[in-house]
Amino acid sequence: MAAMAVALRGLGGRFRWRTQAVAGGVRGAARAGQRDYDLLVVGGGSGGLACAKEAAQLGRKVAVVDYVEPSPQGTRWGLGGTCVNVGCIPKKLMHQAALLGGLIQDAPNYGWEVAQPVPHDWRKMAEAVQNHVKSLNWGHRVQLQDRKVKYFNIKASFVDEHTVCGVAKGGKEILLSADHIIIATGGRPRYPTHIEGALEYGITSDDIFWLKESPGKTWHPTDVALECAGFLTGIGLDTTIMMRSIPLRGFDQQMSSMVIEHMASHGTRFLRGCAPSRVRRLPDGQLQVTWEDCTTGKEDTGTFDTVLWAIGRVPDTRSLNLEKAGVDTSPDTQKILVDSREATSVPHIYAVGDVVEGRPELTPTAIMAGRLLVQRLFGGSSDLMDYDNVPTTVFTPLEYGCVGLSEEEAVAHHGQEHVEVYHAHYKPLEFTVAGRDASQCYVKMVCLREPPQLVLGLHFLGPNAGEVTQGFALGIKCGASYAQVMRTVGIHPTCSEEVVKLRISKRSGLDPTVTGC
Amino acid sequence: MERSPPQSPGPGKAGDAPNRRSGHVRGARVLSPPGRRARLSSPGPSRSSEAREELRSRLLGLIERSRVVIFSKSYCPHSTRVKELFSSLGVECNVLELDQVDDGARVQEVLSEITNQKTVPNIFVNKVHVGGCDQTFQAYQSGLLQKLLQEDSAYDYDLIIIGGGSGGLSCAKEAAILGKKVMVLDFVVPSPQGTSWGLGGTCVNVGCIPKKLMHQAALLGQALCDSRKFGWEYNQQVRHNWETMTKAIQNHISSLNWGYRLSLREKAVAYVNSYGEFVEHHKIKATNKKGQETYYTAAQFVIATGERPRYLGIQGDKEYCITSDDLFSLPYCPGKTLVVGASYVALECAGFLAGFGLDVTVMVRSILLRGFDQEMAEKVGSYMEQHGVKFLRKFIPVMVQQLEKGSPGKLKVLAKSTEGTETIEGVYNTVLLAIGRDSCTRKIGLEKIGVKINEKSGKIPVNDVEQTNVPYVYAVGDILEDKPELTPVAIQSGKLLAQRLFGASLEKCDYINVPTTVFTPLEYGCCGLSEEKAIEVYKKENLEIYHTLFWPLEWTVAGRENNTCYAKIICNKFDHDRVIGFHILGPNAGEVTQGFAAAMKCGLTKQLLDDTIGIHPTCGEVFTTLEITKSSGLDITQKGCG
């Protein structure tokens, strides 16, 4: 390994003028111009890979180190980070599997003669999803290779502010130095610390997508795992969600409660205002969960096949030895503190993605922030990342897409009397023949009340919410006014046309239920 | 004639005019948040718009109250001629000399907003805008002017709308909301195969609605195939039952028909299920199913009769072929089908029929999807071809013969090449004609009142306030010349027309950047210009086109083909890379396109696309990461997921 590091250093020995970096008190660190890399990226997720590829494209010498610490249940995966392996990608695919289950139920109404009910085979789905993820892992490695980015599958920790020590699976150590370092190690699911049996018997989103066998009857003490519970219900599993307080914290609360309402009416069980206290394995292998009703204080128990914790995520910063480099983290969240240029307390060390304090935990934000950062570092750009009006979609059974401010935020920023909310219930055309209930298909646009009624936020609950929301996010970015959106001609018959037909304001008190065509 | 001077924002005195209506408005605004209502003494944009509103209602009041109003200038010879004409008829006129009042320039401005006429004289007779000097004399010569003068307000209705489709109904409802007495005449002449339907027009009965539902049924067939890959287990061969589907769709349509009738009743719009025809100025004859005739008069009319499918004019076409008028309620499965035409109707129908597992052939005379971006059109076609639809290019049918009767029967089609003498023969169960549509404007008595139509196309030319050459007759919907034939356009223009006619708004319908989606098996959504049109308007060297192929995430596990879905934007290099054309071929194209259309209304640029964060993982996000220009010639195929 040492030999390898030397060889790499040799490759890096290009002559380049550079100002002397602050190097006081650094032991054994390479001097500027003699370091192994122009850029070292710690963490091979969406943000890290975007940084690495962008820097390589700008002709820099780049290395990425990535290492997946197995989950407490022993699950591990390849290059690409959370999104590809245990996040967006497998989640959306399993969501799609659940949607297809709904479509199979619709099919007879549309003349398809399918005998119901149609059973679902978890193994077959999981294998297909996992194979796709593996092909993506491979694709990422090939892309790094194509762009001459050096990839190390090692667990990294800082030695000093320019040097990182990596430990490979076999325990071999390697030292890597770089002029610039980007930390993009992301986060991992949090386990509860004071619940007996939680770690031993519970799984998290790190495991669910990689299960070989169906999780069976599952139980989610959660306020974020609505998506998982949604698709598990959708493929026919008995699923219970336990929530201590409000779901989808940070999202528009009216929309969140409609998401829950929809899930509850489609078979997901909810236990609200309860807190788990104990998980135990019964002799038959099932898990017995004990919980307490927070208001009455009464204890209750239930048995499940799987317990999935989804109580938040913790940044992956503990093993990085950030103090050796002098990188500051938030004492509360352990997330890395950065300025608007993504720089940490150490000027040449940066951080992007979920590991950063106060940023939306979204793949496309990490990618864009990473690319812009690298363009500033090596491409002569000065463009900063704009974290306002980031659109996102929650892939619950009825999808929820949003961009801009929630109604609560708008009221808090501008005052109730300066905010006008336009809203409508609608029925997707496809629901009619399928005989589906559209009680929760709903759209609302939060605007300033003063003409020209600037659009502050858009919230859409219905099929294909992600596809619907994307374009409107552009509109809001362009500074769209309510009038401009209303002047846009609809595309008939779609769900998204409901957005350009929003005529009823909440203030008017009129019935927002759409009738007819 | 006098042109009005350019916008003169000066401090008019209109606000001082006593006017009960505007006083009321002002009173209401006390409830508005602070800052919204500007005081009359403080200058600012809201002040001038408030003053303008007041002036407008003052003018509308004047028009409302007077038998004849002439907006004139004392030195204008044309104005003088008109004044002389009315005095020779012994008619007293209300004359407003714009050069002699303080706010004359502003009056002229507001007038041009109301009437779309910038010049004086500007004449109103019994609330109807007649026009300028020439139009008034024409009306005098045709007898219309005398009619207008006579009939005062003795009409049965304020507004009669001929045609109860999307445009007509929206116009009727809006006019009724504004307190007007409104009648809608709707009558469906049965198709040559005898199909007819209820209230609501093409979209609801034989257009968008049943089309999208059948498209959905076909997509479900695809979803059933996909679902096996996603772990759903069923082994039996899944068959499609046409009757079950059609019945369900027709039930839904019936509920919509009923809903329309209810909503007309609720709004007190008179609905008459009769065929409307002009017999003289302001008078219409309504003939019902039994042949009974009734006559109605109205101050103003809106023509919204729409279009019906065109026939080939060859032997056997009306006897044996069906059109989209018949397909959606066909009581039996059409079986092996020949679709004639390459319009979006043709391709959509061919697409869903093939999706049900039927043997489908499309016979195309020249190009696919005329008027749409041709690169996209070809991609739509090639996807269909890869999914079992056969195309016969450069052929036209010359004869259709019945071989066997039945449901369906057997038809022999003889077709000849458009390029040579070659002929071919084929046997099909059903022949569906989708070669275009003809406006229903030739049999409604338009010639009786002198409404001009384009003799060739049958379409009605209108000005930008949807007014025909006869001032009290307007038109909306598919029968308009050079306007998009789309339901939401008709709805919007009908609604805005009613608002303008009855003084609720001045807003004109904006026909620019109208988005649309073709619901072929792989959907095609677009907004703005096609590549061909953009090159024609802006020249190739001034454009930058960004494009990419993409692979929807859901297609990966389903094992569907990569490098098939395609996204393209056309930017004007010399206007900040403004997006002037947006095109997407992929699942849910309609849902994706809508928001981008709204963004284009707000001046979308390439930079803004780049600055916007994608929603992951969706198809729509592809537009936030477009990097490859067409001119670079770089490879756009996708090797994996990036």
Topology diagram in text:
The complex is a heterodimer of chains A (517) and B (642).
Chain A: H1 2-11, E1 37-42, H2 46-57, E2 62-65, H3 81-86, H4 88-106, E3 112-113, H5 122-146, E4 150-152, E5 155-160, E6 163-167, E7 173-183, E8 187-189, H6 198-201, E9 202-203, H7 205-208, E10 218-221, H8 226-234, E11 239-243, H9 253-265, E12 269-272, E13 274-281, E14 287-293, E15 299-304, E16 306-308, E17 313-315, H10 322-325, E18 349-351, H11 363-378, E19 392-394, E20 400-404, H12 407-414, E21 419-425, H13 429-434, E22 442-448, E23 455-461, H14 465-477, H15 482-487
Parallel strand pairs in A: 1-2, 1-7, 2-4, 7-18, 9-16, 10-11, 10-16, 11-12
Antiparallel strand pairs in A: 5-6, 6-7, 8-17, 13-14, 14-15, 19-20, 20-23, 21-22, 22-23
Chain B: H1 20-29, H2 45-65, E1 68-72, H3 77-88, E2 94-97, H4 104-115, E3 122-125, E4 128-131, H5 133-142, H6 144-151, E5 157-162, H7 166-177, E6 182-185, H8 201-206, H9 208-229, E7 239-240, H10 242-266, E8 270-272, E9 275-280, E10 283-287, E11 293-303, E12 307-309, H11 317-320, E13 322-323, H12 324-327, E14 337-340, H13 344-355, E15 360-364, H14 374-386, E16 390-393, E17 395-404, E18 410-417, E19 423-428, E20 430-433, E21 437-439, H15 446-449, E22 473-475, H16 487-501, E23 516-518, E24 524-528, H17 531-538, E25 543-550, H18 553-558, E26 565-572, E27 578-585, H19 589-601, H20 606-611
Parallel strand pairs in B: 1-2, 5-6, 5-11, 6-8, 11-22, 13-20, 14-15, 14-20, 15-16
Antiparallel strand pairs in B: 1-3, 3-4, 9-10, 10-11, 12-21, 17-18, 18-19, 23-24, 24-27, 25-26, 26-27
Helix pairs in contact in B: 2-4, 7-16, 9-10, 9-13
